[in-house]
Amino acid sequence: MATLLPSNFSSHLCSVEVCDVQYNMRILKMKDSVFIYIGENKAENFDEMAMALPTETSEICSTTIMGEVVGCGSEDLAQKLARKLKKQVYLSANVPNDRIVRPSIERKLFEEINNNRECF
């Protein structure tokens, strides 16, 4: 009889509506890192991706993996998340980089982290 090992992966889905558009936030928690995808409901795309991780000196090291290198909104948010979660973060935030949508989504994401820490 085979013994099932506990999975090192867990997933979580939440959504937020901003300016009459619903955005999904898909979280894949791994053993030592987390992948977060944010995109418009029913029109999900994967245009950019960034990675950030805390270093031993408490600095945050980050890079854009995919998408525009200059002005990648995912990289800035990945840095904030890595600082808060104290772990490596992969982030794909495929949302408008304006003064209403992105801040609203960030607020919802940090609220979700505070209310469901075990999912991150």
Automatic annotation (TrEMBL):
<dbReference type="Pfam" id="PF16093">
    <property type="entry name" value="PAC4"/>
</dbReference>
<protein>
    <recommendedName>
        <fullName>Proteasome assembly chaperone 4</fullName>
    </recommendedName>
</protein>
<dbReference type="InterPro" id="IPR032157">
    <property type="entry name" value="PAC4"/>
</dbReference>
<dbReference type="GO" id="GO:0043248">
    <property type="term" value="P:proteasome assembly"/>
</dbReference>
